[in-house]
Amino acid sequence: MTLYVNLAELLGSRIENGFYRPGDRLPSVRALSLEHGVSLSTVQQAYRVLEDSGLAAPKPKSGYFVPASRKAPALPAVGRPVQRPVDISQWEQVLDLIRVSPAHAITQLGRGMPDISSPTLKPLMRSLSQLSRKQSMPGLYYDNIHGVHTLREQIARLLLDSGCNLTANDLIITTGCHEALSASIRALCSPGDIVAVDSPSFFGAMQTLKGLGMKALEIPTDPITGISLEALELALEQWPIKAIQLTPSCNNPLGYVMPESRKRALLTLAQRFDVAIIEDDVYGDLAFNYPRPRTIKSFDEDGRVLLCSSFSKSLAPGLRVGWVAPGRYLERVLHMKYIGTGSTAPQPQLAIAEFLQSGHFEPHLRRMRTQYQRSRDQMIDWVMRYFPEGTRVSRPQGGFMLWVELAEDFDTLRLNRALLEYDVQIAVGSIFSASGKYRNCLRMNFAPKSTPEIENAVRKIGMMIEKMSAQTD
Amino acid sequence: MTLYVNLAELLGSRIENGFYRPGDRLPSVRALSLEHGVSLSTVQQAYRVLEDSGLAAPKPKSGYFVPASRKAPALPAVGRPVQRPVDISQWEQVLDLIRVSPAHAITQLGRGMPDISSPTLKPLMRSLSQLSRKQSMPGLYYDNIHGVHTLREQIARLLLDSGCNLTANDLIITTGCHEALSASIRALCSPGDIVAVDSPSFFGAMQTLKGLGMKALEIPTDPITGISLEALELALEQWPIKAIQLTPSCNNPLGYVMPESRKRALLTLAQRFDVAIIEDDVYGDLAFNYPRPRTIKSFDEDGRVLLCSSFSKSLAPGLRVGWVAPGRYLERVLHMKYIGTGSTAPQPQLAIAEFLQSGHFEPHLRRMRTQYQRSRDQMIDWVMRYFPEGTRVSRPQGGFMLWVELAEDFDTLRLNRALLEYDVQIAVGSIFSASGKYRNCLRMNFAPKSTPEIENAVRKIGMMIEKMSAQTD
After folding, report:
1. Which of A161, A197, A236, B183 is 20 to 30 A from B362, alpha carbon to alpha carbon?
2. Where are the alpha helices (H) located in A295-360, listed in sequence order?
3. Domain boundaries, chain B
4. C-alpha span between B216 and B328 (Å, rounded)
């Protein structure tokens, strides 16, 4: 990435995160040039990018300002989850979401599906097709339980970008990130154990806790800085917490990237209380800023972080190829992986290894990041236009999920049922809480390129919300 | 299958199972014609097949006899496992087996790999390749958590052959049979629970019990009729057994097909003590006799049988497509499947559905059954020729695994280590017991067509056994 784009993204994210407010004067070209060690013209180019995206406006002789008209929607409030470990509910609601088959008739804004129509995926399809034509051992047999070696090598290289120095032997390939999380949880915890989670939190990992008989302790989470370290510390003092499970980079569903300093502080806390961290990084490669955020794992010195990820968000979920870097828990996670599914299908592993090795992944990621950032802005605009006044939305720094908070007494479960007749679906907020909180919230997917159909779907959701709000009044 | 082949197989299996002994007179042509309602010439044709395979010899004017010279190797003894629930060990030994990558340099007789070189698999590879070329929703997205609907329909049709009347909605697609077993066990049991298993038993299912903190109670198992119902009844009276987990058709590792009457009796026993049965049928479609054996599930009226299977043995393990018919436990198994891996990769499901729908599966199975039956006979011959006198071997009625029992004090763990220098590997017997029994046994794969290389490998194993036996003397 060129220097000016990099700088534009940095400034842009500061503006978006409210570091500079509407009407504020932005740093001078000279100051930025000194601060970042780049030329004046690089800074000028960066400002032109910001101008184009409406984040900065020049005033003659006074430099650049954040446009006063820039209407930044309010952020969701920090959640107030139950302050004790709870049994997890919401399976029925999750089931409603995952029972749906992909169908063209419905505008599915509920599921965590990336856009898979990009031409940058073509080489992957070619590899898959070529491999499938071969009736050969490596593709059709059980592979080594650790997974295809060349793929593990490629992932180890990839992990350098997030600050991790790992080798192929530190990694286990899994059947999606789901299995990585599940095997990690099973390796660390027994029924009755307490796991601290960010809140709102990914429902899949919480259902895993539920299925295995563990309790979740939801920690309040800030929509910009992530899990509250203060609340977490209190919880660690009060409860025998076995592990901390969270998504610190491009969080699902809130979209924040936890600042590096807080990631380090979280690790220190985990060390102090001697608990393990299960770090879900499945959206991490889709951070809009370059370079991508560091993982907590990258600061880990005593192997207590189990880094879980997959190609489900960066390539395609149907490939079912994920991985885990389980640190000191490797042997135990390997056993848990084996008893879950045996070894993972080798064909997609081989195809992805080829895709990475041939250098196709980076251009693909670049393209998707740009697309997702654009469609995020478009989706936020639509939500502001079509949803009732007072609607709060997250400000995703990566990935393709928007978190929307409606009036406190609104029920998105009822909304989603009503939306069925419009062939539109969203993810209801309550599945992101162990105890069914966030009923007035919803999650929307903005992965596809913006189209009139999607705008229309958002408009319908907004109309339905207005209609239902009027009924309850 | 034509009538005479059918009849020849039936008679052949009776001879092989010792129902008719060497020197015995076989039923007359007329008697068989009446008994089976077929023509005299059909019976004569069947006898000619038996003549060719050395199982019957004509005596002028006296009819057919079992050749007196027919040397049937002794069967393995019925095991004497520990008669109480035990914690499962042997993970290190299993790991040795599953850590191996498929490599041409080594003659791998240890793993449960089918022969994947048959031309009857070509249409499957074509479908896979064509599907992979498409960058489309159904192949790359998350599918419905139940699995691809057309595949479930095809499997339901397939299950008719084993006597099951099920619909697509009774089935959940899983990531191999391994996940079917794992999700079933997790759905039924909690840590500390006792599960009764056949002994020897499939190590993968036992390791699942281990990983989930359950105890195994090994039930003595006859190499021809299967799990001892008498011992099982005693165990059910004595212990709070939660489930019975077994492979009654083409058992792994013993190869027997439990007679129908005993399958029914087992179910009655399970009803009486109100326990669930986890029935692993993964080799069931590879039974040498036609029609294939009925499953215990086919007699199940109150939904207590969870039928687990996959295409790993009948097509290829690398596809990782299995299924479970969980009866009354469907909702719970679905939750356990979801928390393990999410939904299963759709591409191989779609390809297999196409393969089944186009009628390619039956001819493929026919071919493989014939091949496996032939190579079974060849492998038994080699073992009898090259292994020490007194070696006992199983008489597999399907699948492609041979169980070999050596002198009581022989250690196959040491043997396998010594075989490394010969580039040959077997599966050690101890992994098939929860408590590490059967150290003097080994399992050998006879799936590939017989070749001089395989004969050579068997010869080397025999030599090494002789050498090690001499050392211990």
Report:
1. B183
2. 330-341, 346-357
3. 3-66, 91-117+363-470, 122-359
4. 23
In the structure encoding, which two tokens stand for residue B145, read together? Answer: 């958590």
Cβ contact B320–A345 (<8 Å): yes
**Could you give the CA distance from residue A344 to residue A340 in angstroms, rounded to a whole number?**
10
B chain contacts of residue A186, beta-carbon cutoff 8 Å: 211-212
pLDDT of residue A23: 85
Tell me the CA distances in angstroms from A264 to A28, A232, A267, A296, B97, one per residue in order: 32, 14, 5, 7, 40
SS3 A389: coil
Cα–Cα distance for residue pair B6/A425, rounded to 1 Å? 55
- Structure-block tokens of residue B358: 């186009």
The angle subtended at Cα B402 by Cα B388 and Cα B386, nearest 5°, is 25
Q: Which letter, b or e, does each residue of A226-265 get, where b requires 16 or more Cβ atoms within 10 Å of its Cβ? A: bbbbebbbebbeeeebbbbbbbbbbbbbbbbbbeeebbee
* Pick among 1.10.10.10, 3.20.20.70, 3.20.20.450, 3.10.450.50: CATH of A3-66: 1.10.10.10
Chain A contact present for B134, CB below 8 A? yes
pLDDT category, A436, cuts 50, 70, 90?
Answer: very high
Q: Check if B105 contacts A (Cβ < 8 Å).
A: no
* Cβ pair B195, B46 in contact under 8 A: no
Percent helix, strand, coil in chain B, to 5, is 45, 15, 40
DSSP single-letter state for residue B289: S
- CA–CA gap between residue A323 and residue A175 (Å, rounded): 8
- Taking contacts as CB-CB distances below 8 angstroms, the residues of chain A near B131 are 132
8 Å CB contact of A338 and B94: yes
- Chain A contact for B178 (CB, 8 A cutoff): yes
E-assigned strand segments in B230-300:
241-246, 276-280
- The dihedrals phi and psi of B433, each to the nearest 5 degrees, come to -125, 140
pLDDT 10s digits, A130-181: 998 888 877 888 888 999 999 999 999 999 999 999 999 999 999 999 999 9
Instruction: Collect all residues with Cβ–Cβ distance below 8 Å to A471 and sequence separation of at least 6.
Output: none
Tokens of B342: 């999410």
Contact B317 A140 (CB under 8 A): yes
Encoded tokens for B203: 């190590």
Can you tell me the distance from the alpha carbon of B137 to that of B144, in angstroms, rounded to the nearest whole number?
A: 12
CA dist B36 and A246 (Å) reads 67
Q: Residue B101 is nearest to which of A143, A208, A316, comparing CB atoms?
A: A143
Residues of A whose CB is below 8 A from B350: none
pLDDT greater at residue A58 or residue A207: A207
Contact present, B308 and B280 (Cβ < 8 Å): yes
| pLDDT (0 to 100) of residue B49 | 79
CA dihedral A407, A411, A414, A418 (to 10 degrees): 10
| B192 vs A: CB within 8 A | no
Q: Give the pLDDT band of residue B3 (cuts 50, 70, 90).
A: confident
Q: Contact B116/A128, CB-based, under 8 Å?
A: no
ipTM above 0.90, yes or no: no
Whether chain B has a CB inside 8 Å of the CB on A322: the answer is no
Task: Give the three-state DSSP class for B310.
Answer: strand
Residue among B89, B90, B99, B101 with most chain A CBs within 10 A, to mutate: B101
Q: Does A319 contact B at CB distance below 8 Å?
A: yes
Tell me which CATH code domain A122-359 carries.
Answer: 3.40.640.10
Residue A233: per-residue pLDDT = 98
